[in-house]
Amino acid sequence: MPEFNDVHLRSFAETVFKAVGVPKRDAQIITDSLIQANLEGIDSHGISRLPVYVRRMMEGRISVRPCLRIIQHGSVLNVDGDNGLGQVVSFRSLEAAIPVAKKLGMAGVFIRRSNHNGTGSFYCQQVMQENMVLIAMTNTPPGIVPTGGREPRLGTNPVAFGFPVNDGPPLIVDLATSMVARGKVILAAREKKPIPKGWAVDENGMDTTDPSAALKGAMLPVGGAKGYALACAIEMFCGVLSGAAFGKNVVSIYEEKAGFAGVGHHFILYHVPHFMSLKEYGKQMDAFLRMLKDTPPSPNSDGVYYPGERRYQRYLQRKKRGIPLSDEVVKDLNDIAESLSVQGLSQGE
C-alpha cells in the first residue's frame, strides 16, 4: 500500500476544499481533522472521507459557508450549525465555548443542523490546549439495531473523553457505541475486504462478514444491551435535547439524492483550574497513570497502555513513514480532484 507524506496530503485536501468554495480557515479545520485521523491510524475517518464531503457540497447538501447562530444562556450554548460540515460547526462552537468555560468553570454545547464531524479526539485536543477536559458526543444516521430488534433505529453514536497529561500523550477515550465505527465497514466495502464476524448483521438479521451486506443491514451494539442503552443516552443529548434530528430521521451523507443530514452534537467542557490547581491536577494524573503502568503484565503482553498511548505511537510512526492509502482511496481522491481541475496525488508524495 503506497504511503503519502502528511504535509502533501494536507496541501492537497486544503486545495480541493477551497476549489469547491470552502473559505481558507474552514478548509484548514476540515483538513486538520482528516489528516489527524489518518496519522492516528483512524483511517475510516481520514482523507477517504473527502470525496463524499465534496460531492455533497457540490450538490448543496452541505453548506460551504455556514453562518452559525449561537445563543448563550449562562453556561449553555445552543448552536444552529446552518447545515455546515460538522468539523467546522463543532470547532467554531468550541471556540465560542472555551471563554465561557474559563469564566464559569464549565460549558455545555448543544448543536443542531450539522453533519458528520470526524473523530471526537480532534476536539479533545483542541480543548486540552486550554487546560480543559472535554466530553464530546454526536449522533449519526441509524446504524445499530436495538437489542431484540433486527432493523437499525439508532446511530453508532460515538463518545469521546479527553484529559490533558503533563508529561506524555493525552488520555483520550474515543469509541463508538457499535462494535466498531460504521466508517470502518464503509472503508472495508470500498477496499473489497471482509469484516470480522460479530461486527454486523445483514438485512435479514443474520451475522455477516460481507461489508456491503452489513451496510444494508446494521451494526451490532458494543456490549449488547449496554451499548444499546448508551446509544440511547447519547441520542437524547445530541438529538432530543439539541433539537436535532434523531434515530431514523438522521440522513447519511452516503445516501444519494437524500436531504440534509440534521446531525446533532453535544460537548461538555471542564476548566481544570476551577476544580483544582494545575499543579495538583498534574500530580493526580501522574499518580493515576503510574498506577496503571505499574500493573504487572499478563503473559505474552508488552505491558499496560493507557487510552491514547497507542494512538500517539501510531501518530509518531506515520509522521515519520507516511500515511498508507489504498489504491481505491487514491483513485477516489484523484477523481474528485480532476472534477475540480486540481492536481491529483501521485505515489511517493
From TrEMBL:
<dbReference type="InterPro" id="IPR043144">
    <property type="entry name" value="Mal/L-sulf/L-lact_DH-like_ah"/>
</dbReference>
<keyword id="KW-0560">Oxidoreductase</keyword>
<dbReference type="GO" id="GO:0016491">
    <property type="term" value="F:oxidoreductase activity"/>
</dbReference>
<dbReference type="InterPro" id="IPR003767">
    <property type="entry name" value="Malate/L-lactate_DH-like"/>
</dbReference>
<dbReference type="InterPro" id="IPR036111">
    <property type="entry name" value="Mal/L-sulfo/L-lacto_DH-like_sf"/>
</dbReference>
<comment type="similarity">
    <text>Belongs to the LDH2/MDH2 oxidoreductase family.</text>
</comment>
<dbReference type="Pfam" id="PF02615">
    <property type="entry name" value="Ldh_2"/>
</dbReference>
<dbReference type="InterPro" id="IPR043143">
    <property type="entry name" value="Mal/L-sulf/L-lact_DH-like_NADP"/>
</dbReference>
<protein>
    <submittedName>
        <fullName>Ldh family oxidoreductase</fullName>
    </submittedName>
</protein>
